[in-house]
Design brief:
The protein is of the alpha+beta class. The chain has one domain. It is built from 7 helices and 7 strands, in the order H-E-E-E-H-H-E-H-E-H-E-E-H-H. The chain has a 7-stranded antiparallel sheet with strand order 5-1-2-3-4-7-6.
């Protein structure tokens, strides 16, 4: 029952690439963000650095500079009156849903910096994550991704997901897999809880920050590297 409660909280919302081996380090193109909201994690992408098919949904969010993506359990999210039956069904396989929110201001202004971690990434890494997100959206026969329902608040929209939500594949598993798709050293197998994602992302962010600090010997900064 405790496990089911945890999974319901998560459901209520959201190919690993090889590291660069070139002689010149590539500068980060932009930062993506991982947002932790209690037991749930979301992914935030800057629209200016999103290319490829995922840009097709940008028109639904006029004025947005960022898009926030959260994976969840469709039957639970859309239930008008949530009861014990929904609680018991949460760990069972069911259709997934993506809540997409358009954000006009900087993520820290909208969500608060205490629940947000920024990861500067190269364009190739952002492209890998954007492709994973696109593949998580259910496409129609024409390859489009029509919205499922308007969200509860202005600026967010529910989209049907091609992925199945269940007890061993939660919002946090999805977030971890998205980050792995960008070549980040994130474990997704066995990841169910927000803390499992958060601890890994904190370690990556700390490593990037340490790499940016000037060398004590040369006084030169180093470009952050992500594996």
């Amino acid at each position: 029952m405790i496990a089911a409660l945890y999974l319901v909280a998560c459901s209520a919302v959201p190919q690993e690439t090889a590291p660069s081996t070139g002689h010149q380090a590539q500068e980060p193109a932009a930062s993506i963000y991982v947002l932790r909201r209690g037991r749930h994690t979301d992914l935030i992408l800057p629209l200016e650095s999103v290319h490829g098919p995922l840009t097709a949904i940008a028109a639904a969010f006029p004025g947005a500079r960022y898009l926030t993506f959260g994976f969840g359990d469709r039957q639970y999210v859309l239930a008008t009156h949530k009861n014990l039956a929904h609680l018991l069904l949460a760990p069972l396989p069911g259709a997934g849903l993506l809540l997409v929110t358009g954000v006009e201001a900087a993520p820290a202004e909208v969500y608060g910096s205490d629940h947000l971690l920024a990861l500067p990434l190269r364009q190739q890494q952002i492209d890998g994550i954007a492709r994973f997100v696109w593949d998580s959206l259910q496409q129609d026969d024409q390859g489009a991704v029509p919205p499922y329902l308007p969200g509860k608040y202005p600026g967010n929209v529910y989209y049907p997901s091609s992925r199945t939500y269940y007890g061993l594949y939660t919002c946090n598993t999805w977030t971890a897999e998205a980050l792995r798709s960008g070549g980040l050293p994130v474990r997704s197998s066995g990841v169910l809880f927000a803390g499992q994602v958060w601890d890994q992302v904190q370690a990556i962010a700390a490593h990037q920050a340490a790499a940016e600090r000037p060398s004590a010997h040369s006084g030169l900064g180093t470009v952050p590297q992500t594996q």
